[in-house]
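User: Just a sanity check before I run the rest of the batch. Below are the structure tokens for the first item. I only need the designed sequence back.
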């Protein structure tokens, strides 16, 4: 048994689980079975920490700096905190990973095939499977590669701000080129020129499945690359959740937090560029196809609303690109199949299903109905933007004069929690706004089929799951202060309902 490094009663620096921040803690004891220390924080929170999450107070600063550069850093094979605690549940997490690895691509295939049917109900029996031959198309693959390369070139252009990410466990802050809005503008110009030169965007509609398959293959290759890349990462570069030792699970969740090729950040790029901008391009292509197929002078009102609403969402995301650096995905999640597939396939090929559906299933809207839907979208957008901005401004500068009248709860980490404004209404007002917007994206498609409502259903599940994941993270981070926040703000997403 290794000797116990820190003694009972000793004051040391302990890392808050799930964060890169260290606080002074007192060692209460050591459990040789789990090889963990029980420590107590100044606010009275007691936690179990592994040795690598503890540093001696004296050498804390110098050590954290030198360790990040030391050639003798622990390799990925070393035991991580998550590894020791997950042993018993490894089998079920591996089964879960196999399930998702198979289910997610199959589900996308199913929905795209449904979209082509006259009666595209999600509760229908699966349509006949197309032949393997018809799924693969060199040209589609080439277009997807070209698209990603084009977006990558725009990303590396030295245009726009270099923003700093949140501090990593080493204390280091990575730099990100936040020029997404510029990339969208250049792309729009390039698409306009291409259309003017005779490029036929109906290709996207006619080869939707082949394009999705191409994007899927690229996401698999990318995930394999990231998995291989993570074998050379040291323990501080690994995400806490994707390092279980089970290949399927780690491949799915992603082992490395920020895989990079030089300064090119794969996770940030994939989350913000090819999929998100591709979503707008595909929507636009669906509007063009609708006009051509039905000999219209302009797209239908429903198609225009879906296009404009979702474009506004993407524009907003890219305009506020820096704010992405504080999201859960960027701060805590590894980059593996789940995010690579989510960014490159799920977003562009399922978030566009409403526009895809409308091409062959027109849904005329009366002016009052259209006006009501626009109003709903604006309400949702207002809540989403206001609440996200409140939190981002507060996190960037808690003493910002715009927030001087806000009530807050201090926490032991030094950060506070907002308890007035939107964050005093529910614990996730940004999710509330996002859900209202999702509703306004489905409404223009009417109620005849469930397919255009798929996004709404999926989004409720995603956000409820995300909310509970964030709850446990915050509980671990903020301890008793989080309990107080939950008492002050009892509802999670929808006031008086949930
Ligand atoms: N369209 C899509 O597919 C998706 C969209 N989204 C959207 O992306 C955005 C980001 O979402 P996500 O990363 O999940 O989560 P949030 O942006 O809501 O971030 C949650 C974090 O906010 C901080 N926080 C929580 N409560 C408070 C408070 N009272 N005061 C101050 N800070 C607080 C905590 O972090 P800390 O204290 O450490 O700062 C918490 O971990 C959301 O608007 C969401 O709707 C998300 C997923 C999918
Ligand atoms: C494949 C899985 C079932 C789910 C994958 C989830 C991902 C598609 C989403 C996880 C978090 C996301 C965020 C966004 C897009 C979807 C994913 C990648 C935004 C970038 C959308 C625009 C917003 O302004 C910010 C969002 C951050 C989170």
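Assistant: Here's the designed sequence for the first item:
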């Amino acid at each position: 048994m290794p000797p116990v490094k820190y003694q009972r009663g000793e004051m040391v620096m302990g890392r808050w689980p799930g964060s890169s921040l260290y606080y002074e803690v007192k060692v209460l004891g050591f459990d040789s079975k789990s090889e963990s220390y029980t420590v107590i924080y100044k606010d009275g929170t007691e936690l179990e920490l592994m040795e690598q999450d503890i540093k001696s107070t004296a050498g804390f600063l110098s050590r954290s700096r030198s360790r990040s550069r030391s050639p003798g850093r622990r390799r990925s094979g070393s035991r991580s905190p998550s590894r020791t605690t997950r042993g018993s549940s490894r089998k079920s997490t591996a089964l879960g990973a196999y399930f998702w690895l198979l289910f997610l691509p199959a589900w996308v295939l199913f929905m795209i095939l449904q979209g082509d049917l006259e009666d595209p109900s999600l509760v229908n029996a699966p349509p006949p499977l197309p032949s393997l031959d018809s799924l693969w198309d060199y040209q589609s693959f080439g277009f997807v590669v070209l698209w990603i390369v084009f977006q990558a070139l725009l990303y590396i252009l030295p245009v726009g701000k270099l923003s700093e990410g949140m501090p990593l466990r080493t204390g280091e802050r990575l730099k990100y080129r936040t020029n997404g809005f510029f990339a969208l503008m250049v792309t729009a110009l390039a698409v306009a020129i291409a259309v003017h030169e005779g490029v036929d965007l109906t290709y996207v509609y006619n080869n939707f499945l082949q394009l999705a398959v191409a994007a899927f293959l690229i996401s698999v290759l990318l995930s394999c690359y990231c998995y291989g890349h993570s074998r050379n990462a040291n323990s501080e570069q690994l995400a806490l959740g994707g390092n279980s030792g089970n290949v399927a699970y780690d491949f799915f969740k992603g082992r490395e937090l920020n895989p990079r090729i030089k300064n090119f950040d794969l996770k940030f790029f994939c989350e913000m560029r090819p999929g998100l901008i591709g979503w707008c391009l595909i929507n636009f292509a669906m509007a063009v196809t609708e006009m051509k197929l039905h000999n219209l002078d302009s797209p239908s009102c429903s198609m225009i609303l879906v296009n404009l609403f979702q474009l506004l969402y993407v524009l907003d995301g890219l305009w506020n690109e820096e704010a992405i650096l504080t999201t859960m995905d960027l701060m805590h999640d590894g980059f593996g199949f789940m995010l690579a597939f989510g960014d490159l396939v799920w977003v562009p090929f399922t978030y566009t299903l409403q526009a895809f559906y409308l091409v062959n299933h027109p849904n005329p809207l009366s002016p009052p109905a259209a006006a009501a839907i626009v109003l709903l979208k604006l309400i949702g957008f207002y809540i989403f933007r206001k609440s996200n901005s409140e939190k981002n401004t507060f996190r960037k500068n808690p003493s910002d004069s715009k927030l001087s009248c806000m009530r807050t709860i201090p926490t032991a980490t030094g950060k506070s929690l907002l308890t007035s404004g939107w964050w005093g209404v529910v614990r996730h007002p940004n999710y509330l706004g996002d859900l209202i917007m999702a509703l306004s994206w489905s409404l223009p498609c009417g109620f005849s089929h469930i397919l255009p409502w798929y996004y709404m259903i999926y989004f409720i599940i995603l956000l409820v799951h995300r909310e509970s994941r964030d709850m446990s993270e915050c509980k671990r981070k903020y301890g008793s202060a989080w309990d107080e926040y939950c008492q002050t703000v009892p509802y999670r997403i929808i006031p008086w309902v949930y």
